[in-house]
Design brief:
The protein is an all-alpha fold. The chain is built from 18 helices and four strands. A two-stranded antiparallel ribbon has the order 1-2. Strands 3-4 form a two-stranded antiparallel sheet. The termini are far apart.
């Protein structure tokens, strides 16, 4: 019997029981939109899913040896990395894939926003994507404590302590997270349960909803088109390209895992085991969270202890909540995009968000501040160096938007850049510079809104 006959017989057997041919026909007719924008962005969702799959597989292998407990957590991680054959590699793959998954997810989210792929009827697809991003951050935060080493212990203490700033329920929420007023072994048990049970069940459910919505509605066509003017067949054309990209991602992941098994050594991107956690020891010097939390960490530092009768951390977390809330509700706020019209203002908001988060992240890394040992970095030098870098990034952004997309609306970007310039080059406090920039931006928006009203009234008369 020839190989083709055998494959047909197997296909017939599966089709009789599971209607496989119907799925194959669906995949053959499913198309990936091709338009004026690059198809690169369509691969990011699959790339994120690939790294998540690696997370699950490597996590299961680590779970074969890991035992949570006061006298077992650190010891089993050390045993995995020093005694288990290739255990160090599996742990390195697990951590690297976590960072790459969140990086891919962040780029995917920003690309979706800038391409306006949240347009109707895909509003809930955006919301489920936002939930996936939030859950992924929860994975990163809960998994950080599991090695029970010094860095993880004190970083978790600092990270959970910020929860106290939540109005009314802050102290209660802190004790729920920690299992008491302080970070103890009870905190480890809670984070372990969250990391391997609660969050996986939740994320699988949300991923299922997200994929069902994408399959039912298809990938978003280019803006200005109800349907894509032309498309590439998903099967086998796009799928083969996707698999090739996954192979390249696997090669890159394994290269990083082998040659940088404990990370590149940057704050927030390092996971050397170090010493076992000792709650009685002095705090670990230079504690900083994972890189995707650095901007929030730095924002908390920019606020004073008290601001207009409000606790500084409470005000900072309130600002973060407003920013994230606006991000989640963009499909409903961007009303012109719902009608298929250009919305350069929201594109500007997306680009300004990149600059805003980027500046705070760079500041958290203390770039250009010198220091080292017992010498603290120079805050003014850090602010100036980071400002120069972000201004360079902004120049590239603006050039692309003007020359390629013919955008001329830069109010939000201008406000962010003004804040960075005032703070980085003139030594003004970050909050005062932000307040001045916000007031000026609101003034521009009000003038523009009143100008549109006059034009509308003139047209009516």
């Amino acid at each position: 019997m020839s190989s083709s006959t055998k494959s047909n017989s197997l296909l017939d057997w599966a089709d009789q029981r599971y209607q496989i041919r119907g799925l194959i026909e669906f995949l053959k007719h499913k198309e990936v939109p091709i338009g004026g924008h690059s198809m690169v962005w369509y691969y990011l969702g699959g790339t994120t899913l690939f790294f998540f799959t690696i997370q699950i597989l490597s996590g299961l292998l680590l779970l074969l040896y890991y035992q949570p407990g006061q006298d077992t957590s650190y010891e089993t991680i050390r045993y995995i990395t020093t005694k288990v054959p290739f255990g160090w590699l599996i742990r390195s793959v697990h951590v690297w894939s976590a960072h790459l998954m969140i990086l891919s997810l962040v780029v995917h989210m920003f690309s979706t926003m800038l391409l306006k792929a949240y347009r109707p009827p895909r509003e809930m697809t955006w919301v489920t994507g936002f939930l996936l991003f939030s859950i992924s951050l929860g994975f990163g935060f809960s998994g950080y404590l599991l090695p029970w080493n010094e860095l993880a212990y004190f970083a978790t203490s600092v990270g959970t302590d910020s929860v106290k700033s939540v109005p009314v329920i802050g102290q209660w929420l802190l004790e729920v997270m920690r299992g008491g007023p302080d970070v103890t072994i009870n905190t480890l048990y809670r984070f372990f349960a969250l990391h391997i049970v609660v969050l996986p069940i939740t994320i699988f459910a949300v991923i299922g909803m997200h994929l069902v919505m994408i399959q039912r509605q298809g990938m978003a066509p280019p803006r200005g088109h109800e349907t894509s003017p032309r498309g590439m067949p998903f099967f086998p054309n796009f799928m083969l390209r996707d698999l090739l990209l996954w192979l390249m991602c696997l090669i890159g992941l394994m290269t990083l895992a082998v040659f940088l098994p404990y990370g590149p050594g940057l704050p927030g991107v390092e996971w050397e085991l170090g010493l076992k956690a000792n709650p009685l020891a002095p705090a670990y010097p230079g504690i900083k969270p994972e890189w995707y939390f650095l901007w929030i960490y730095q924002l908390l530092k920019e606020f004073p202890a008290h601001l207009f009768g409000v606790e500084g951390p409470e005000a900072a977390l309130g600002l973060v909540s407003v920013i994230m809330g606006i991000w989640a509700l963009i499909p409903w706020l961007d009303r012109k995009s719902r009608q298929g019209l250009p919305t350069p203002g929201f594109t500007d908001y997306g680009n300004a968000s990149i600059l805003f988060i980027g500046y705070l992240t760079l500041k958290a890394w203390d770039l250009g501040g010198g220091g080292g040992g017992d010498v603290l970095p120079d805050p003014a030098a850090v602010a100036r160096t980071c400002a120069i870098i972000i201004l360079g990034v902004a120049a590239v952004q603006i050039a692309i938007r003007v020359l390629v997309y013919h955008h001329w609306r830069f109010t939000t970007t201008g406000a962010v850049l003004l804040q960075i310039i005032l703070h980085g080059f003139f030594g003004m406090s970050y909050l005062l510079a932000g307040a001045i920039s916000f007031v000026l931006a609101m003034g521009v928006y009000i003038i523009r809104y009143r100008g549109r009203e006059r034009v509308f009234e003139g047209a009516k008369s």
